[in-house]
Design brief:
The complex is a heterodimer. Helices cover 53% and strands 14% of the residues of chain A. By secondary structure, chain A is an alpha+beta fold. Chain A folds into three domains: 114 residues, Acyl-CoA dehydrogenase/oxidase, N-terminal domain (Butyryl-Coa Dehydrogenase, subunit A, domain 1); 107 residues, Butyryl-CoA Dehydrogenase, subunit A, domain 2, CATH 2.40.110; 146 residues, Butyryl-CoA Dehydrogenase, subunit A, domain 3 (Up-down Bundle). In chain A, a hairpin with a 2-residue loop joins strand 2 and strand 3. The termini of chain A are far apart. Chain B is of the alpha+beta class. Helix content of chain B is 52%, strand content 15%. Chain B starts with a helix and ends with a helix. Classes of the chains: A alpha+beta, B alpha+beta.
């Protein structure tokens, strides 16, 4: 993008090389085996990606949503699943601690999370509270100077590998009585349930966090009791912008693969790229990918300039994943029999991307948020 | 379309799929396991050669009846439905073009479901452009010698009888012949087993022919008239893929409605949200429209006046519907829909290849356009 800073352009190059060398060669393997590319994850720490938005004082890069989105796009082109794990760590855990935790907590947790020594996750969704996240029922109760936490969290990216979990709990009966804790695996402040098998994002571990009367010191609480609804809503904005970056990467990869295949594959004595039906497919794929990039980076830049809001982030999150699924389905179609086999990456990209229409708020929840913003003058029902 | 007989077929197949296939499905899909005994049992119930005349051991029923069977079976397993559908297609070809000796030698084991039949046309370089195939069959005094390979062959490795299209003459469609090749024939081996996005319980395999010598009486019909043999199966093939698509889509719709009627968010059943109601109303409308088109095409075929335009439309519409409805079903189920604990993610993976097999949907559009032009000549 013409408006990328020199720093952002350099980051793009760095991530492009990293994706080609470290993620792409192993993506098919980890998808097949449902295993986590932990070597690549650790290397992300070495090259300085794990604290992309965090303050340099703690080892972070001090960059914004635009930079984080660039990382998502470039890594997402090669392996959306590894990128999702990266997002859970750097945006859901690190960025939340950076923005909401105390100085003492930041000093304690951020350097090791940013170097890659520790892996982090975030616990929001529960089995019965997915779209209705503010309704969560995991309870934290203050007893003396310690909290007792009970409940469980579902569909947690990185659960099995996490040293640190940033977890939302209920501390009161009113809907908004939500409080966050930073929990440590080493101190038995959470347990991990069985792994969840998925259609895609198979190289990104997903599991359950379980709290059975977990004892947690007051020092692990983030802010005051009841602060967390605001924290949650604020972080969801950058989460939605950056996850859309993974879908942009998927769309780019599918378009590039399709253009390449259309020029190589011959049927009826000529390259299939000479057929108008194929031309229509790749022309539309490329046009839509460009639209996605301009919309997404425009919104990310605005976010970095202070023009934020839940509705615009929701619009990006509604538009991009949906378009990327369509593009990936077309890419499989264009590759025919080969596209359906695991030998070519397009079917994996499609399976991976479908998650982006569900995770970080479903398309349906995005519609609710956008409509609520557009129709805010409507009088509430009596 | 719905009469008592069809109701009986549906109930019988429903009982079978729920008892015998459904419990194993998640695991078998994950591990890509095909169970031949399931196919054999379908044969014992009389479903392995539904449209084949009774004199050859078939059930002597119509394509409409066959579609009812396939639609119902596909609600649980598209892969087993496809195995039956391809095996039946092989029998149709033998029944129509085979000589008496060939029919007697190969049909009984196929119609009874003791053996599986497979059809080998595609090659790595010739998918949509089928008649450019390069596998050769050289005629000697007493035999044909096959050399080459076939790719993406459904039931490859588990089938016993293969109909293989090979070049015996000039380039293009007029130099191709159809042969019967049997598992175990010398020079005939299997290549790589495809690892696929979906249809994982149905083996898809490469066939390799290295100086594979088969007796002369394995030629089906006349020399160099193989494409005629292959094309004869086209209408039926497209209609059956249509029926399979409808069954798959119906299951996805059923899963969506039942889940949304139990799942609560924001203190109400998610079915109560208009966004989901509209989504599911569209899904249901598409499924019903596809079903009508498929059974219309089957009806024309049963009346002896198959219409290639309608058959192609049925395949195109029903498979596109299967894709969009299964994608929406994953969406309706949200997080759990993306996990393997619920069937919808598998339905979505199984749907995609319906838009690719039996002529990609691009090819269906070419066929429809050709018929549109014809109607104005």
């Amino acid at each position: 993008m013409w408006y990328f800073s020199e720093e952002e352009k350099a980051l793009q190059e760095l991530c492009r090389d990293f994706a080609i060398n470290e993620l792409a060669p192993k993506a098919e393997h980890h998808d097949n085996e449902e295993s986590f590319n932990i070597e690549a994850f650790k290397k992300m720490g070495e090259i300085g990606l794990l604290g992309i938005t965090a303050d340099p004082a703690y080892g972070g890069s001090g960059l914004g949503a635009t930079a984080a989105t660039i990382v998502m796009e470039e890594l997402g082109k090669a392996c959306p699943a590894s990128t999702l794990s990266y997002l859970a760590h750097s945006i859901l855990c690190v960025n939340n601690i950076q923005n909401n935790a105390s100085e003492e907590q930041k000093q304690k947790y951020l350097p090791k999370l940013i170097s890659g020594e520790w892996i982090g996750c975030m616990g929001m969704s529960e089995a019965d509270y997915g779209s209705d996240a503010v309704g969560i029922q995991t309870r934290a109760k203050l007893e003396g100077d310690q909290y007792k936490i009970n409940g469980s969290k579902m569909w947690i990216t990185n659960a099995q590998y996490s040293d640190i979990a940033y977890v939302y709990t209920r501390t009161g009966e009113e809907k908004k009585n939500l409080t966050t804790f930073i929990l440590e695996k080493d101190k038995n402040q959470f347990e991990v349930g069985k792994p969840i098998h998925k259609m895609g994002m198979r190289a990104s571990p997903t599991g359950e966090l379980i709290f059975k009367n977990a004892t947690v010191p007051l020092a692990n609480r983030v802010g005051e009791e009841g602060d967390s609804v605001y924290h949650m809503m604020k972080n969801l904005e950058i989460e939605r912008i950056t996850i859309a970056g993974i879908s942009l990467g998927v769309a780019r990869a599918c378009t590039e693969q399709s253009i390449k295949y259309a020029q190589e594959r011959k049927q009826f004595g000529k390259e299939i790229g000479k057929f108008q039906l194929i031309q229509k497919m790749i022309a539309e794929m490329s046009t839509e990918t460009d639209m996605m990039a301009h919309f997404l980076y425009g919104v990310a830049k605005e976010y970095d300039n202070g023009n934020k809001g839940p509705a615009i982030a929701a619009k990006v999150k509604l538009a991009l994943p949906k378009m990327a699924t369509k593009i990936a389905l077309d890419a499989i179609q264009l590759h025919g029999g080969y596209g359906y086999s695991r030998e070519f990456p397009v079917e994996r990209l499609m399976r991976d991307n479908k998650l982006n229409e569900i995770g970080a708020g479903t398309n349906e929840v995005m519609i609710m948020i956008i409509a609520k913003d557009l129709l805010k003058d409507l009088k509430p029902k009596k | 379309m719905s009469n008592e007989f069809h109701q009986e077929i549906k109930e019988q197949v429903k009982k079978f799929r729920l008892e015998k296939i459904e419990p194993l499905l998640e695991k078998d899909d994950h591990e890509a396991v095909f169970r031949k005994e399931i196919f054999n049992e379908l044969g014992e119930l009389g479903f392995a050669g539904i449209t084949i005349p009774e004199e050859f051991g078939g059930a002597g029923l119509s394509y409409t009846d066959f579609c009812v069977f396939l639609e119902e079976l596909s609600k649980t397993s598209v892969p087993y439905a496809v195995t039956v559908s391809v095996s039946t297609m092989v029998q149709s070809i033998l029944a129509k073009f085979g000589n008496q000796t060939q029919k007697e030698a190969y049909l009984p084991e196929l119609t009874s479901g003791k053996e599986i039949g497979a059809f080998a046309l595609s090659e790595s370089g010739s998918g949509s452009d089928a008649s450019s195939l390069r596998t050769t069959a050289k005629e000697t005094d007493s035999s044909f010698i096959l050399n080459g390979s076939k790719l993406w062959i459904t039931s490859g490795g588990v089938a016993k009888t293969y109909i293989v299209m090979a070049r015996t003459g000039q380039e293009g469609s007029k130099g191709v012949s159809a042969f019967i090749v049997r598992d175990g024939d010398s020079g005939f081996t299997y290549g790589k087993n495809e690892s696929k996005m979906g249809w994982r319980t149905s083996p898809t395999r490469e066939l390799l022919f290295k100086n594979c010598e088969i007796p002369k009486d394995r030629l089906i019909g006349n020399l160099n008239e193989g494409m005629k043999v292959a094309l004869s199966a086209l209408d039926a093939g497209r209609i059956t893929i249509g029926a399979i698509s409808v069954g798959l889509a119906q299951r996805a719709l059923d899963e969506s409605v039942s889940y949304s009627l139990t799942r609560e968010q924001f203190k109400q059943k998610i079915f109560e949200f208009q966004g989901l109601q509209f989504m599911m109303s569209d899904m249901a409308t598409e499924v019903e429209a596809s079903r009508l088109l498929v059974y219309h095409a089957a009806h024309l075929l049963d009346e002896g006046r198959p219409d290639p335009k309608i058959s192609s439309m049925a395949k195109l519409k029903a498979s596109d519907t299967a894709m969009s409805v299964t994608t929406d079903a994953v969406q309706v189920l949200g997080g759990v829909g993306y996990t393997t604990e619920y069937p919808v993610e598998r339905l979505m993976r199984d749907a995609k290849v319906l838009q690719i097999v039996e002529g990609t949907n691009q090819i269906q559009r070419v066929v429809i356009a050709r018929q549109l032009r014809k109607s104005f000549n």
